[in-house]
Design brief:
- The chain is built from eight helices and 18 strands.
- Strands 7, 8, 9, 10, 11, 12, 15, 16, 17 and 18 form a ten-stranded mixed sheet that branches. Strands 1-4-2-3 form a four-stranded antiparallel sheet, with no helix packed on it. A two-stranded antiparallel sheet has the order 5-6.
- A hairpin with a 4-residue loop joins β15 and β16.
- It is of the alpha+beta class.
């Protein structure tokens, strides 16, 4: 087991222009913390330190002060038992809750099962980006993002948790944008609660700004520039059936579950808002088209349903397309869903630095990189 876990601490040196601000106003302006987040720091041991001494958020700041905010507690690590797995839910004050156990310092901590052997052997963890707050991984098609019934130790999250455990990090892993099991590409993990909150806030702000913006322009080059601009977005590459009459467009159809216990999503007036922008990158000799997609709202199966509704289902989609094992075999195509989260752009929550991540394109998307 690794030694004692180090807490994640933000450190700010107060300049002349911040003199006279309170800790609360400084953190809300500089980082964008909410009152709820500030309250968590207040009740955390050594959560807010000013020049090494505990202070409340209404304390004033002076030039030269050093302000420290403890994002994670640190302390004694918990050794996960191989037969235990994270089952989800909210931790209760109950040592018997599945997926949690009591640490030596009294806190409840999640227990992650070690990744299944076949997963490690066939799909070793591919890290695209990592810092103290964020980890981005390249998820293969067919791998589940997060533990769920039937998938306790064969998920990308299990691999990320094992990686963090090996380097002595706390296992507070949160997926901030899941991908379907059969979708490949970038998955972003927040490595603490506050990072997750800040990334969600970025997405909400980006959605608000995009909702007020115009839809992609008719010219493909202009549309692609619009789709790849902004401070927070994810760009997908897909291969779909058929040819488009319009090389760019927007699908604006609300989505809901087909039934309460169904995995399928359907377009319905009483569904939740969902908007997908697309741009054709290439028309392939086999009658399929390679497209780039950028989504708003991020509903379950959004791109898959929207493309099927346009009459251009994603190749390999057995849920929304005309696929079957025999049909795929006859066409010479593999059974993989041809949908890939290719690029993610966002800001580091605490430094404001732009982070741009790309996942290598799969073979079926060969050539699209020349255009994007």
């Amino acid at each position: 087991m690794p030694g004692e876990l180090k807490p994640r601490i933000l450190r700010f040196e107060i300049g002349k222009e911040e003199k006279g601000e309170t800790i609360k106003s400084f953190l809300m302006r500089r980082v964008g913390f909410s009152s709820k987040q500030l309250s968590r720091f207040k009740y955390r041991k050594d959560g807010i330190l000013l020049n090494g001494e505990k202070r409340y958020v209404n304390a004033g700041l002076s030039e030269g002060d050093v302000l420290e905010i403890r994002l994670t507690q640190g302390g004694e690590p918990v050794e996960a038992h191989p037969h235990d797995a994270l089952t989800g839910g909210t931790p209760r004050e109950d040592d018997q809750m599945p997926g949690y156990q009591r640490a030596r310092d009294g806190r409840l901590q999640k227990i992650w099962a070690a990744p299944a052997g076949w997963l490690e052997e066939n799909h070793p963890l591919r890290i695209l980006y990592e810092d103290q707050d964020i980890l981005a991984a390249d998820k293969p098609s067919g791998v589940v993002c997060h533990p769920s019934p039937g998938h306790y130790d064969d998920t990308l999250s299990n691999q990320v948790a094992q990686h963090l455990g090996r380097i002595g990090r706390e296992l507070d892993v949160r997926v901030t944008g899941r991908l379907d099991r059969d979708t490949s590409g970038i998955v972003i993990f927040a490595l603490n609660t506050e990072t997750a909150a800040q990334l969600i806030k970025q997405r909400q702000e980006a959605l608000k700004n995009r909702s007020n913006a115009s839809t992609p322009a008719p010219a493909p080059a202009s549309a692609l520039r619009q789709m790849t601009s902004g401070s927070c977005f994810k760009l997908y590459i897909a291969r779909v059936r058929g040819r488009f009459l319009a090389l760019t467009g927007t699908v604006d159809l609300p989505l809901r579950r087909e039934s309460q216990d169904s995995f399928r999503m359907i377009a319905s007036p009483d569904g939740k808002k969902a908007r997908t922008h697309y741009c054709v990158l290439a028309e392939c000799p086999d009658g399929t088209s390679l497209i780039a997609c950028r989504i708003e709202h991020g509903r379950t199966h959004q791109i898959r349903v929207h493309m099927a509704e346009t009459g251009h289902p994603i190749v390999g989609d057995r849920l929304y397309g005309p696929e079957s094992s025999q049909a795929l075999q006859d066409s010479g195509m593999t059974g993989v869903l041809m949908l890939h989260a290719y690029r993610a752009v966002f800001r580091q929550p605490f430094t404001g630095k732009e982070i741009r991540i790309e996942a290598p394109l799969p073979d079926w998307a060969s050539g699209s990189g020349l255009l994007i």
